């Protein structure tokens, strides 16, 4: 993956003399001091991050944290006071007006919280807005706009006016309008925040579906942690104009950078953030390396390590089954003295492995009901570890604790 | 008590005599007007020629049109934009004007109003756009507009007469000045009230300045702009009547005659004619301010009328 967009030490100061405020920041003065003494507001302070080609990068923060200002600097709706913003290596802060307009027409488009559709235009005309502005011929314009509407499932409403649509439908038009110009980067400013929860989830799924079809680089602004966790490949968390942490959802949940980040998880259900692989443990029980090992040797190994169960996998680490002290003893007793039974015959019944990428919410019941630790396997059937009830409870308890 | 108040009065009198000097504002203004007349004579002549050309031709045109054509056109407009009830009203109202023998005067007035409105919009709308784009200009233009609107209408007539003599031209010019402020104000307000996110959307998709104005701001400000145009027309109509004092002619003449000769009947007839014109112009221009949504147009009305359940199927 290559870097599509990089933001380097970007600042935004609102007020009469931004340069003076910058000097104060360099001297180490705080945002509040600067505001109290000069009346200037530091909107974004020293923001740096990189967005990779094809990922959904979420910027999350409370209102007033500077995330909307930040996203508007990415297409220079708001001029950065200092710093560089590179798209495909080109610094857009140095672009001329003409280059900037070209960039906005072809390379970067935006979806707005309040939809910002033109009420005097039909859905089709709204969708074609960007193409219209760029001077695309009317036949091609119509074709591409219809394709974009088709992609969001609104082709049938092409001739409606925005005020005839529901909120969710309006935002689909907003999305189609942004997609119609086929941009390399899509900016979404609280795009789903004005929708009611059910529709919001639906739109998130829609975005993920579109992303699966043709992946774009998306910068997604939200104040909603659930939304960030759901759609984000990586998340940047902003506090008072500063980017305090950047990472995958798992990283942020596991190791919050500070109390502010931790406070987001208050009352938030993180079981859908963790997958089975995240909490699976390798060290939990002894592993028998290959099929063909004798039942008695397996039993002695378990007894030696004082463990009740063991996982059996082959040389390629593919999961085979699970054996316990009881199942092994039972099988050995049933066999004659000289007989060498196959280890498969001693597998504990009722232990089903779970896929590594399944979220915790989906496997919770299985783990809770199984008397043994549940093995976790990856997409090739390879053994990744096990999840015991204790591990599960511990994880749940830890997220509770970090929330409190 | 009486002695005391007399003393106070003379005290103030002496203060006033000592401190208040005559700034000679009236004389200053006269000098300014004289100066302008002397040095900008050509400019005024050019303005006068243009205005007189437009106003004369418009009034001529409306008087040349056979009355049935005017009836037909106005009624058709009324039916298209407002509805059949208003169309009937228009026909009846025009008939009343005919019966009062005020048809030529009404057509004069209509011509003057339209000429003055066109001139006012020609200057006012661009001014409003620039004013919306620049806070500095807004700060300068606003008091000028206040001045233009609060100065009694009759006062406009004096410089108009000095610069342009009497007749149709100074009447139209005084009307232009009097009627311009609302369209400037409403254009300014309309553009400033376009939602921020719509403007941002326009810019985010790569509009240049002209595209932003014509594809986003003006369409979204249209209701305000039309309200401003409507107000300008209404003010023009009222001023045209006053301007008959300096010989502008039209429906103001019978009103003026009514005042000067205390002829109640003829004055009332003139007034009624003005009211009728006002109602027709007002309703028609207002109707253009509302977005032409489905359900308001004639076609949908017909569809509604003929569809079985009485509901338009489209919406």
Automatic annotation (TrEMBL), chain A:
The complex is probably composed of two ATP-binding proteins, two transmembrane proteins and a solute-binding protein. Residues 280-340 form the CBS domain. InterPro entries: AAA+_ATPase, ABC_osmolyte_uptake_ATP-bind, ABC_transporter-like_ATP-bd, ABC_transporter-like_CS, CBS_dom, CBS_dom_sf, Gly-betaine_transp_ATP-bd, P-loop_NTPase. It comes from the Bacteria. This is Quaternary amine transport ATP-binding protein. SUPFAM superfamilies: CBS-domain pair, P-loop containing nucleoside triphosphate hydrolases. GO terms for cellular component: plasma membrane. Residues 28-265 form the ABC transporter domain. GO terms for molecular function: ABC-type quaternary ammonium compound transporting activity; ATP binding; ATP hydrolysis activity. It comes from Salinisphaera orenii YIM 95161. The lineage of its organism: Bacteria, Pseudomonadati, Pseudomonadota, Gammaproteobacteria, Salinisphaerales. It is an enzyme of class 7 (translocase). Keywords: Amino-acid transport, ATP-binding, CBS domain, Cell inner membrane, Cell membrane, Membrane, Nucleotide-binding, Transport. It is found in: Cell inner membrane.
TrEMBL record, chain B:
SUPFAM superfamilies: MetI-like. One of its GO terms (cellular component) is ATP-binding cassette (ABC) transporter complex. GO terms for molecular function: amine transmembrane transporter activity; carnitine transmembrane transporter activity. GO terms for biological process: choline transport; glycine betaine transport. Its main location: membrane. InterPro entries: MetI-like, MetI-like_sf. Keywords: Cell membrane, Membrane, Transmembrane, Transmembrane helix, Transport. The keyword Endoplasmic reticulum does not apply. It is found in: Cell membrane. The chain crosses the membrane at residues 71-98, 110-133, 153-179, 233-252, 264-284. Residues 106-285 form the ABC transmembrane type-1 domain. It is a multi-pass membrane protein. Pfam families: BPD_transp_1 (PF00528). Belongs to the binding-protein-dependent transport system permease family. This is Glycine/betaine ABC transporter permease.
């Amino acid at each position: 993956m290559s870097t599509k967009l990089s933001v380097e030490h970007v600042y935004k100061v609102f007020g009469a003399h931004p340069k003076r405020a910058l000097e104060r920041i360099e001297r180490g003065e705080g945002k509040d001091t600067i505001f109290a003494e000069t009346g200037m507001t530091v909107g974004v302070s020293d923001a740096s991050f990189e967005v990779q080609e094809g990922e959904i990068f979420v910027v999350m923060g409370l209102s007033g944290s500077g995330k909307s200002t930040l996203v508007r600097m990415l297409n220079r709706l708001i001029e950065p006071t200092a710093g560089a913003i590179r798209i495909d290596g080109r610094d857009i802060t140095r672009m001329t007006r003409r280059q900037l307009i070209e960039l906005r027409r072809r390379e970067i488009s935006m979806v707005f919280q309040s939809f910002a559709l033109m009420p005097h235009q039909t859905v089709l005309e709204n969708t074609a807005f960007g193409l219209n502005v760029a001077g695309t011929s009317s036949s091609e314009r119509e074709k591409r706009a219809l394709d974009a509407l088709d992609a969001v499932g609104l082709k049938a409403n092409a001739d409606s006016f925005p005020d005839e649509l529901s909120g969710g439908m309006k935002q689909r038009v907003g999305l189609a309008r942004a997609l119609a110009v086929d941009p390399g980067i899509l900016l979404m400013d609280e795009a789903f925040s004005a929708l009611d929860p059910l529709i919001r989830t639906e739109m998130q799924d829609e975005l993920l579906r579109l992303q699966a079809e043709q992946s774009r680089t998306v910068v997604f602004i939200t104040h909603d942690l659930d939304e960030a966790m759901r759609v984000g490949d990586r998340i940047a968390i902003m506090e008072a104009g500063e980017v305090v942490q950047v990472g995958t959802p798992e990283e942020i949940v596991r190791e919050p950078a500070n109390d502010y980040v931790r406070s987001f998880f208050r009352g938030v259900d993180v079981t859908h953030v963790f997958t089975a692989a995240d909490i699976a443990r390798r060290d939990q029980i002894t592993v028998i390396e290959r099929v063909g090992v004798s039942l008695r040797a397996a039993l002695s190994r378990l007894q030696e390590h004082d463990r009740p169960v063991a996982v059996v996998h082959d040389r390629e680490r593919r999961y085979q089954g699970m054996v316990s002290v009881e199942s092994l003893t039972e099988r050995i007793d049933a066999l004659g003295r000289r007989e060498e039974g196959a280890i498969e015959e001693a597998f504990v019944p009722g232990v089903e492995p779970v896929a590594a990428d399944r979220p915790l919410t989906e496997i919770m019941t299985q783990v809770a009901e199984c008397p043994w630790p549940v093995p976790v396997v990856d997409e090739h059937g390879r053994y990744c570890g096990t999840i015991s009830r204790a591990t599960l409870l511990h994880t749940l308890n830890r997220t509770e604790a970090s929330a409190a | 008590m009486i002695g005391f108040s007399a003393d106070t009065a003379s005290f103030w009198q002496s203060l006033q005599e000592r401190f208040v000097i005559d700034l000679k504002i009236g004389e200053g203004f006269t000098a300014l007007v004289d100066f302008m007349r002397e040095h900008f004579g050509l400019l005024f002549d050019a303005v006068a020629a243009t205005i007189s050309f437009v106003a004369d031709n418009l009034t001529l045109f409306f008087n040349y049109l056979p009355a049935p054509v005017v009836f037909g056109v106005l009624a058709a407009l009324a039916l298209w934009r407002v509805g059949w009830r208003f169309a009937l009203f228009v026909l009846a109202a025009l008939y009343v004007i005919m019966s009062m023998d005020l048809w030529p005067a009404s057509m004069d007035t209509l011509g003057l109003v339209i000429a003055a409105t066109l001139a006012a919009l020609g200057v006012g709308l661009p001014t409003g756009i620039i004013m919306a784009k620049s806070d500095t200009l807004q700060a300068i233009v606003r008091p000028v507009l206040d001045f233009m609107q609060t100065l009694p209408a009759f006062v406009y007539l004096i410089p108009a007469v000095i610069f342009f003599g009497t007749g149709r031209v100074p009447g139209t010019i005084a009307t232009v000045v009097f009627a311009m402020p609302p369209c400037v104000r409403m254009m300014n307000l309309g553009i400033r009230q376009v939602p921020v996110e719509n403007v941002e959307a326009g810019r985010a998709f790569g509009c240049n300045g002209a595209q932003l104005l014509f594809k986003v701001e003006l369409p979204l400000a249209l209701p305000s702009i039309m309200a401003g145009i409507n107000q300008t027309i209404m003010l023009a109509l009222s001023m045209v009547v006053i301007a008959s004092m300096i010989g502008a002619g039209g429906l103001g003449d019978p009103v003026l005659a009514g005042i000067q000769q205390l002829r109640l009947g003829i004055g009332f007839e003139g007034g009624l004619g003005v009211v009728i014109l006002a109602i027709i112009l007002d309703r028609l221009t207002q109707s253009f301010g509302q977005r032409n949504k489905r359900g308001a147009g004639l076609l949908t009305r017909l569809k509604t009328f003929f569809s079985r359940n009485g509901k338009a199927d489209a919406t």
